[in-house]
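Recap from last week: sequence in, structure out.
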Amino acid sequence: MDILYLLIPLSLVLVFLVGAVFWWALRSGQFDDLEGPAYRVLMDDDRPGQEEGRRTL
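Predicted C-alpha cells:
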C-alpha cells in the first residue's frame, strides 16, 4: 500500500511530461505534413544515364 504513495505521483508526472512533449510537437509543426514524406520517396528526380562515370554491376 505504501508503494502507491510513490507510484501515483510518479505516474502523474509522467503523464504531464508526455502531454508537454505532445503539445510541443503540435506547436512546432511536427504533424503538419504526414503524407509528404511517403510520396517524396516515390518521386525520382534523377535521370537515367546522368551519372555515366559511376557504374554498378
